[in-house]
Design goal:
Blueprint: E1 2-11, E2 14-24, E3 29-33, H1 40-48, E4 55-60, E5 63-64, H2 70-76, E6 78-81, H3 93-100, H4 104-107, H5 110-120, H6 122-126, H7 137-149, E7 155-159, H8 167-182, E8 186-191, H9 194-200, E9 203-208, E10 211-217, H10 218-222, H11 225-231
Parallel strand pairs: 3-8, 3-9, 6-7, 7-8
Antiparallel strand pairs: 1-2, 1-4, 4-5, 9-10
Helix pairs in contact: 3-7
């Protein structure tokens, strides 16, 4: 479904992504793990079109998209749950969800997707008329995921979904990702919580200093001696 080939992305003169190549197949959950500053979020921004790679290319569903504007990529089905949630705090839960279904493709499925979101997160239905800014951190993350699902994504990308949440809420977020995986959603998960991400992922890539250092099946990388020492404290 997604093929990223030898991309190089920059912030000004800072060379952040240095020749990264990976793929996500239909129905897979793929994780990109690694330390702060490795370039994980920059990869998602490049796929979303918020950053244009200086070289390399990106294909989605067999077509080049690395020069396609961001809103057109959403129309194609590439949707991101951003780090920090980035909700509209002065709008209600319902209004935030409705904004997720702005594309013509998503509008046709809005009622079905809204039902699905409320099944996943009943608390959002209870609080549909509450301002998003008054929700707890965990509820806001649920809303951010729900808003992305309203876009009827073909590829759902998560940028650090557990960041800043209490341990109990972190577990709830990962339970949601597992449930979406059971539904055969295609997902790309960027996450600092290496153990949780690798346990969920079908395949994973370890990113360090803008380069892919290791790749393999999630469960296999959990047994990798380097990852165990560097990231799992074993």
């Amino acid at each position: 479904m997604l093929r990223v080939n030898n991309i190089h992305s920059f912030y000004g003169d800072l060379h952040v992504i240095q020749g990264v190549t990976f793929e996500v197949r239909s129905g897979e959950t793929v994780a990109i793990v690694g330390p702060n500053g490795a370039g994980k979020s920059t990869i998602l921004k490049t796929i979303s079109g918020l950053i244009e790679p200086r070289s390399g290319y990106i294909e989605f569903m067999g077509e080049r998209i690395d020069r396609v504007p961001p809103h057109k990529r959403v129309d194609l089905g590439i949707v991101q749950v951003p780090e920090g949630r980035l909700l509209f705090p002065e709008l209600t839960v319902w209004e935030n969800l409705d904004l997720g279904a702005y594309s013509k493709h998503a509008r046709k499925q809005k009622d079905a997707m809204l039902k699905h979101v409320f099944q996943l997160f009943p608390i959002l239905e209870e609080r549909r008329n509450q301002l998003a800014g008054t929700l707890s951190g965990g509820e806001q993350q649920m809303l951010a995921i729900g808003r992305a699902l309203m876009s009827a994504p073909k590829l759902l990308m998560f940028d650090e979904p557990s960041l800043g949440l209490a341990p109990m809420l972190v577990s709830r977020v990962f339970e949601t990702v597992v449930e979406l995986k059971r539904e055969k959603n295609t997902m790309l998960l960027v996450e600092q919580n290496v153990r949780e991400a690798l346990e969920i992922a079908d395949r994973a890539y370890l990113l360090e200093s803008g380069r892919v250092l290791k790749e393999g099946r999630g469960k296999e990388l959990l047994q990798d001696e380097y990852l165990k020492k560097a990231y799992l404290g074993l």
